[in-house]
Amino acid sequence: MSIIGHDPLASTSARVLQAGARIERHRHTEHQVVYPSSGVAEVRTDAGNWIAPADRAIWIPAGCWHEHRFYGPTRFHCVAFAVSSAPDWTTPLVVAARPLVRELIITCTAVEQLPDHEAVRLRQVLLDQLRRCPEQSLRLPVAGDQRLRNACALVESDLTIVWTLPELGRRVGAAERTLTRLFRVEFAMTYPQWRTQLRLHRAMQLLAEDLPVTVVAHHCGWATPSAFIDVYRRALGHTPGAYRADSI
After folding, report:
1. Fewer CB within a 10 Å sphere, N or C end of the chain?
2. What b-and-e string marks burial along 203-236, b requiring 16 or more CB atoms within 10 Å of the CB?
3. Is the pLDDT score of 244 beyond 80?
4. What is the pTM of this model?
5. What is the pLDDT of residues 138-178, one digit of tens each?
6. Is the domain covering 3-139 a CATH 3.50.50.60 domain?
7. Quick one: which of 74, 36, 34, 27 has its CA closest to 55?
8. Rounded to an integer, what distance in angstroms lies between the CA atom of residue 152 and that of residue 207?
9. What is the residue extent of each domain of the chain?
């Protein structure tokens, strides 16, 4: 795994990164949208992790401390926006990267090919389009309560094990009712909803590493590949195989 130092001058850029690469913790004085035209990019903060395959993009607000992790060979694009000109999105979020948005991001990061006045106009069009992009529920929250944090770590350590809430509670010293409340209060999710988010998050990482769908389904705890494909399609709008074809 390679760890890449942050270059504050490269806030609008494109780079090719190897599988397993990381960009260390940093923040920007400008807003950014980041997009992987191949591979999968993840943004990690103290509050949660956001993930984007090649049909999603991640908005990162100015001043937000974060790091990046990459799965599979990734071509990574970043476009910066002045705080005064951008939407008032105060936390990271994942948006659908429609075809026009994808092309605008890719073009905006080829800055050496564009006169400054054209780059400014294209970024404004990109902003207009981003405002119309639907938000995607691809956030994996980070627990604050230590009991919930420990319960999440147990589930994350092996997704093939199906933990019940009573079993988790006994392991971390919390009643089932307490864990149920913590999932709802801290994550705004039920335990099954959070576990599905975790499994999808892990599945996108593994798919980027070119593992077969059947292997991904098993590692992420689905009983059958067809069950995995069904959940993936309902969450992301296409099958895992379609994503892999689009990301080549």
Report:
1. C
2. bbbbbbeebebeebbbbbbbeebeebbebbeebb
3. no
4. 0.89
5. 899 999 999 999 999 999 999 999 999 999 999 999 999 99
6. no
7. 36
8. 22
9. 3-139, 141-247
Dig out the tokens for 231 from the structure: 């959940």
Q: Are 58 and 94 in contact (CB under 8 A)?
A: yes
Half-sphere exposure in the Cβ direction for 93 (13 Å, CA): 14
Architecture of domain 141-247: Orthogonal Bundle (1.10)
Contact by Cβ (8 Å): 12, 108: yes
> Which one-letter DSSP state was computed for residue 23?
E
DSSP class per residue in 36-69? EEEEEEEEE-SSEEEEE-TTEEEEE-TT--EEEE
Residue in the structure block whose two tokens are 């949660």: 48
Q: Are strands 22-26 and 93-96 parallel, antiparallel or unpaired?
A: unpaired
